[in-house]
Amino acid sequence: MRCPFCGNENTRVIDTRAAEDGFAIKRRRECENCSKRFTTYERLDDRPLIVVKKDGSKQLFDKHKIYTGLLKACEKRPIAESKLLEIAEEIERELKNRLEQEVTSLEIGEMVMSRLKKLDEVAYVRFASVYRQFKDVNSFLEELKKLLNGGENS
Hints:
- The protein has helices at residues 63-73, 81-97, 105-119, 121-131, 137-148; strands at residues 11-19, 24-31, 37-43, 50-52, 58-60, 102-104.
- The protein has 154 residues and is of the alpha+beta class.
- The protein folds into two domains: 11-43; 50-148.
- β1 (11-19) and β2 (24-31) form a beta hairpin.
- α3 (105-119) runs antiparallel to α4 (121-131) and α4 runs antiparallel to α5.
- The longest helix is centred in the middle third of the chain and has 17 residues, at 81-97.
- The chain is elongated and about 60 Å long.
- Residues 49-139 form the ATP-cone domain.
């Protein structure tokens, strides 16, 4: 494995662990030239998951988009980034375990919202405000009322 810092091809593995619930192997490596450490992941090369957007366009699934959306929703909230990565990986795993190769962005958004609702109500409302694209304050207040009343349709 080539060192990302100095380009040297001589690196050694100093730690190996299962990652992503056993679907990947995480390796810590150290460059024998510059002594810097870096992490690599080994994963199965599986069929791609396609996301069908609201406008009908399609793109490859990207777990990182879920993670960055979670980060934005949870900004300045007492939630560990590792928990957000865990949620993104859980959603990815759930989607890949389905037999369908395509998933709608709507389904992904609902999966994120259901997990955020359990994790942190403020983060849930933040995410919902962007995801549901509230047209005005009243529609936003309706979502808050559902949350406060324990409504199932939120």
